[in-house]
Specification:
There is one protein chain. By secondary structure, the chain is mainly α. It has helices spanning 2-23, 32-62, 79-102, 105-116, 131-138, 140-144, 152-168, 178-181, 192-201, 212-217, 226-253, and strands at residues 68-69, 150-151. Helix content is 65%, strand content 2%. A two-stranded parallel ribbon has the order 1-2.
């Protein structure tokens, strides 16, 4: 399961990173050290996510521990989409409150600062977590399968949505149609521009899929500004390149003619 989670991360983040390179060629320019760090932390997180997932998969296959079912007729057909919505809502609730807790000073310094080191975030940042934060995220779906019945295909859909939203929320541009993030639907769904504001200002926009908890708790701060963040990233890349060039010049000047 660790291998599956790791490959899933590399495939999803790599695919969307490639789409970014094709659509916005210079967006991640100068961020290579950051991206390497994001991939490293994400693969550590994949190992942590894989442990409870593997235990649950073994228990479902061999012991019947969970409420995951194969027979589509075990519940009414209308329950299939409802179960997906229940899982997403429960996961979103867990994520919102643990995410807010992670922004308290001590948990932030200890763990969550790893994720916020991605400035601006890239498609590779979706699972770039400290192990403590990865553990809080790794247990929620495994716990839900003991409580809420779900068809195995519907569970696969939940995991797909979780992966896609985790990656696309960090891409630095909107991959979804405009109506999903600017229209009435966007007032309740979280996409990249909403999560970008969280990485800009930290103390707002804590949700994962839906804006419900942010709106209810007064932490919704609207949409971020991709153009400004790109300009900042390019300025940092230019400063870093200039510093490297200056260092090289000093080294060259110290050599005998």
């Amino acid at each position: 399961m660790t291998a599956i989670v790791g490959v899933r991360y590399l495939a999803a983040s790599g695919g969307f990173a490639l789409a970014t390179r094709l659509r916005h060629p210079g967006l991640y320019t100068g961020l290579d050290p950051q991206i390497r760090r994001e991939i490293g932390w994400s693969l550590v997180s994949a190992a942590i996510y894989g442990i409870p997932a593997g235990v649950i998969a073994w228990g479902w296959e061999n012991r019947g521990w969970t409420r995951v079912y194969r027979d589509v007729d075990a519940f009414p057909l209308w329950y299939l989409p409802l179960s997906v919505l229940l899982y997403l809502t429960a996961h979103d609730t867990w994520f919102y409150w643990t995410h807010r807790w992670m922004h308290r000073p001590r948990p932030f310094r200890l763990a969550h600062a790893v994720h916020h080191a991605s400035r601006p975030p890239t498609a590779w940042a979706a699972m770039a977590f400290h192990p403590i934060e990865a553990l809080t995220g790794a247990v929620v779906i495994p716990l839900l399968v003991f409580i809420i019945p779900i068809h195995v295909a519907a569970l696969g859909l939940v995991l797909t949505i979780m992966t896609v939203m985790g990656v696309t929320n960090h891409m630095g541009w909107e991959v979804f149609p405009r109506f999903m993030w600017r229209g009435p639907l966007g007032a309740w769904l979280i996409t990249a521009s909403h999560h970008q504001r969280h990485h800009e200002r930290y103390g707002c926009n804590y949700g994962l899929y839906f804006r419900f908890w942010d709106r209810l708790c007064g932490t919704d701060d609207g949409l971020g500004d991709f153009t400004r963040d790109r300009a900042r990233a390019q300025a940092r890349a230019g400063t870093a390149a200039g510093a490297r060039g200056e260092h090289a010049d000093r080294r060259g000047a110290g050599r005998p003619a």
